[in-house]
């Protein structure tokens, strides 16, 4: 009938922005899974981090599926989202960034299959963040969820560059077309 239930039992239309955010977060996890498979084929050690991110995205989904406007304290405790995973992402970003050459131009999604899939994941992550921010602003989701997605997109960008470097693949840079 076009409705679905949140974790709190509240019935909402399937077009509700909560379900849009949940669907986009699920799509993000799928994109990261694909990137992880390509990266695993190349023997990248960071594949375990991608799996951990996918697990965190389940927690993101739990938080989003528990609108604060209808959540009881038991719901809030069970689906709380802490700052710890955000700090972990920042450590990972710093670790990979230190190993990369400085960025001197805009990079196009490229650099081999692992890198391109990570760039695609980053784009999906940014869309997920755009879906989540209005929920946070409306007081329906934890602000740490939006912060996590924000840092996750940065992590995926740095990781895409790192994968290209480790695989010896060239990153294509933006060149302004002559008009």
From TrEMBL:
SUPFAM superfamilies: Cobalamin adenosyltransferase-like
Keywords: ATP-binding, Nucleotide-binding, Transferase
Domain Cobalamin adenosyltransferase-like, residue spans: 1-163
Catalysed transformations (reactions): cob(I)alamin-[corrinoid adenosyltransferase] + ATP = apo-[corrinoid adenosyltransferase] + adenosylcob(III)alamin + triphosphate
One MF annotation (Gene Ontology) recorded for this entry: corrinoid adenosyltransferase activity
rRNA-binding among keywords: no
InterPro entries: CblAdoTrfase-like, CblAdoTrfase-like_sf, PduO-typ
GO biological process, one term: cobalamin metabolic process
Record keyword Nucleotide-binding present: yes
Family the entry assigns: Belongs to the Cob(I)alamin adenosyltransferase family.
Its job: Converts cob(I)alamin to adenosylcobalamin (adenosylcob(III)alamin), a coenzyme for methylmalonyl-CoA mutase, therefore participates in the final step of the vitamin B12 conversion. Generates adenosylcobalamin (AdoCbl) and directly delivers the cofactor to MUT in a transfer that is stimulated by ATP-binding to MMAB and gated by MMAA.
Assembly notes: Homotrimer.
Protein's name in the database: Corrinoid adenosyltransferase MMAB
């Amino acid at each position: 009938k076009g409705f679905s239930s949140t974790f709190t039992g509240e019935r909402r239309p399937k077009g509700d922005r909560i379900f849009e955010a949940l669907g986009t977060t699920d799509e993000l996890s799928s994109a990261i899974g694909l990137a992880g498979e390509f990266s695993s084929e190349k023997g990248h050690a960071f594949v375990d981090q991608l799996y951990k991110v996918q697990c965190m995205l389940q927690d993101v989904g739990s938080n989003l599926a528990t609108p604060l406007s209808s959540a009881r304290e038991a719901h809030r405790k069970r689906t709380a989202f802490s700052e710890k995973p955000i700090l972990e992402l920042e450590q990972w970003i710093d670790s990979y960034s230190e190993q990369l050459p400085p960025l001197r131009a805009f990079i196009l999604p490229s650099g081999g299959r692992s890198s391109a899939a990570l760039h695609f994941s980053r784009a999906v992550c940014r869309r997920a963040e755009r879906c989540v921010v209005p929920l946070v602003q409306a007081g329906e989701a934890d602000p740490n969820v939006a912060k996590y997605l924000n840092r996750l997109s940065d992590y995926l960008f740095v990781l895409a560059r790192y994968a290209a470097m480790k695989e010896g693949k060239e990153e294509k840079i933006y060149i302004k077309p002559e008009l």
